[in-house]
Amino acid sequence: MNPATRLPTYFLSHGGGPWPYLQGDFRLMFNTLEASLKTIPRQWGSKPRAMLVISGHWEGPEFAVTSSAQPPMVYDYSGFPASTYDVHYRAPGSPELAARIRDLLQAGGHPTRLDPDRGFDHGTFSMLQPMVPEADIPVVQLGLRDDFDPAAHLDAGRLLAPLRDEGVLILGSGSSYHNLRQFGPAGAQASAGFDAWLNDTLVGSAPGPRQQLLLHWEAAPAARQAHPREDHLLPLMVALGAASGEAGTRVYHQRDFFGSMVMSSFRFGAAEGPA
Questions:
Q1: Which of 173, 176, 179 is nearest to 255 (CA)?
Q2: Regarding beta strands 9-13 and 50-60, do their DSSP bridges make them parallel or antiparallel, or are they unpaired?
Q3: How far apart are the first and last CA of the chain?
Q4: Measured between alpha carbons, how far is 241 from 157 in angstroms, rounded to an integer?
Q5: Residue of 52, 55, 20 lying closest to 174 (CA atoms)
């Protein structure tokens, strides 16, 4: 890999439902997250030719990749205004990149299928709308394996690392805390404990120990309180696997998310512009 052309990778907390398309008090709760997402393009140096998003909202028995040239939308939320079921993040897809991703993963021993029907879920479009509102960068979405094996997802990231030198930005989209049964004040202590461990691991640990700690993430403080189901944590494994030897930097940190919870996002690799 060429450090001069290599894009960083990210693990980003993407927020709730279709929040960028709303107004009022609910939208205001995401102001800090939105500000952090808007700074991320300044870190790239040059515009990516495409983006690969690993979404915590898509899973199956094997890895799957969106392969439509014009992906539809997946409105995977409920209880929001009717207008949010008509929003459309109009970025094109990239069948060529989808095939490249499949080939890289299959060459490494991971069965992977192309899905021409799957569209962008809110793990993708809620994050990209504030980050790239022009929707002018092709986007391909990768689903998780539903065995949630951290080693397999770290290995998938390692196999996809060459894309970083091909102008492809790798974004893991999930959440540093995701327990909807303990949201708000009920999640304050667990989110703080797990977030502190996550930051120490991703930013403060050397690459070798960092990977071992992630393989055994369930031993972290409040791990299963923070992630009773690890769908929103596994995108981190792919993003880190694609940058396994590179430093981690926290690019978003909020201690009062929904009033009381701690949330973070991370970058792996150096920023080319102002961080």
A1: 176
A2: unpaired
A3: 22
A4: 4
A5: 55
Contact 89, 73 (CB under 8 A): yes
Residues paired with residue 140 on neighbouring β-strands, in sequence order: 52
Q: Which residues fall within 8 angstroms of residue 237, CB to CB, at 6 or more apart?
A: 150, 153, 154, 156, 157, 172, 214
The residue behind tokens 């930097």 is: 249
Q: Inform me whether the pLDDT recorded for 41 exceeds 70.
A: yes
Q: Are 9 and 239 in contact (CB under 8 A)?
A: yes
Torsion 166-90-126-102 (CA) sign: negative
DSSP conformation class of 24:
S
pLDDT of 3 strictly over 80: no
Paired tokens of 87: 């929003």
Q: Is the pTM value of this prediction over 0.85?
A: yes
For residue 112, the model assigns a pLDDT of 98
Lowest mean pLDDT among 78-82, 84-88, 177-181, 266-270: 177-181
* Of 188, 167, 192, the residue nearest 45 (C-alpha): 167
Task: Write down all domains in the chain, each with its CATH number in brackets.
Answer: 9-268 (3.40.830.10)
